[in-house]
Amino acid sequence: MTQPVCLVTGVGPGTGAATCRRFAAGGYQIAMVARNAERLAALEGEISGSKGYVCDVSDESAVNDTVGAVSRDMGDPEILIHNAVRGTFGTFMEMNPQDLQDNFNINTMGLLYFARACTPAMVKAGRGVIIASGNTSALRGKPNFAGFAPTKAAQRILAESMARTLGPQGVHVAYIVIDAVIDLEWTRKMMADADDDYFIQPSAIADTAFHVAHQDRSAWSFNVEVRPFGEVW
To answer: Which CATH number does 5-226 carry?
Structure first.
């Protein structure tokens, strides 16, 4: 294989799948990671040069095995996009404390596990990209986000620490804050009265990720924010 490899976690029907399509169109082999084998199989048939890997991103051993399989099948990932996310909602008194732990294991520990598995080859090559997809919960703790926001804030700070370590070694780490409601079937049903301009398109998020992944190293971004033009912020 001569095409570089992009590994995407959390490949669902929205941002994950759109990101896979965008990077495949940009000349990458795509390693798609998710828990849903049926969805991965369907995307394999749609996206040229893609291969699905079923993995629990909160399991370090499973992550290491998955990255090892990707390296054997396709080559070492040059780009890692951690899009896997788990979110639950409620105030700190209403939420189930276990949800905070489970959210943390996917959102933050999953990023840590994949980064630790992928970066040795990136550092050896002197190049690579790690992008985590986040949202405004990483920047503020609203009342009903007590079980979610702390995990995204930790994820962002972990990514920043990684960026400061890896940047001088040629590996670009960035954090994309998605300040928007993503256009998905379930969000459309939940907000049936919202017009099209209210939603952010998964393909637009993917375009931003592709741009960030290909920035000149003299002008790397870390904090990147995307929102619809009408979003109040």
So the answer is: 3.40.50.720
